[in-house]
Amino acid sequence: MNRRRVQVQRKTRETEITVQLDLEGSGRIQVDTGVGFFNHILEAFAFHGCLDLVVSARGDLEVDAHHLVEDTGICVGRALAQALDSVEGIERYGTAWVPMDESLAMVCLDISGRPYLHFEGPPAAGRVGDFDCGLVEEFFRAVVNNARITLHVRILYGSNAHHQVEAVFKAFGRALRSAAARRGYGGTGAPSTKGTLD
């Protein structure tokens, strides 16, 4: 069984990012983006996804964090696409509900080969520390387009933006862990009646 471990790099005039991802993680998480809350939620994603994740990201934070967050999403998405290059025997679908105090988030995903994002929830404005909550949707759009997955994110309710956003990232990790698990369909073949995913 091949280990699903990859490294992706991206360098532009605005950002320089390296992402190492291992879907069969052992708890190695090291995230340094220069944005404290972004570090925190990426770590929560990896921990609850049982992933090894190393992220080193530098960007034009003197402008704002938009380019950094979006380009990190691109790299995470590309890493997922490479790690999931063989879909033989995976579960394909994953769903997770995560409560965090007064907040509740739900994430459903399909490792489908078809990028689609539905994002529904409050954190379109406001900040947590130096992190603009409006960037949450931008991050997931970048992940979806580059991983070629279908992702539905819903924040059902909550009054604390920190809790809402963190619940989403934890739910994303748990849903991905379920969908990427190699135990379904007898362990062979693509998890589709048409024999392929796309």
In words, what does this structure look like?
- With 198 residues, the chain is of the alpha+beta class.
- Helix content is 32%, strand content 30%.
- It has helices at 36-48, 66-83, 135-147, 161-180; strands at residues 5-11, 15-22, 29-32, 52-59, 93-100, 103-110, 116-120, 127-128, 131-132, 150-157.
- The strands form three sheets. The protein has a four-stranded mixed sheet, with helices on one face.
- Strand 1 and strand 2 (15-22) form a beta hairpin.
- The longest helix is centred in the last third of the chain and has 20 residues, at 161-180.
Low-confidence stretches: none
Q: How much strand content do the residues show? A: 25-35%
Q: What is the tally of beta strands? A: 10
Instruction: Kindly report the spatial arrangement of strands forming the biggest sheet.
Output: 1-2-4-3
By CATH, the topology is Ribosomal Protein S5, domain 2
Name the CATH homologous superfamily: Imidazole glycerol phosphate dehydratase, domain 1
CA distance, first residue to last residue: 23 Å
Radius of gyration: 16 Å
In CATH, what is the class?
Answer: Alpha Beta
- What overall form do the CA principal axes indicate? globular
Fraction in helix: 25-40%
Total helical elements = 4
Examine the secondary-structure arrangement and name the CATH architecture: 2-Layer Sandwich
Structural class: alpha+beta
Order of helices and strands: EEEHEHEEEEEHEH
- Count of structural domains: 1
What is the average per-residue confidence, as pLDDT, rounded to a whole number?
91
Largest sheet: 4 strands, mixed
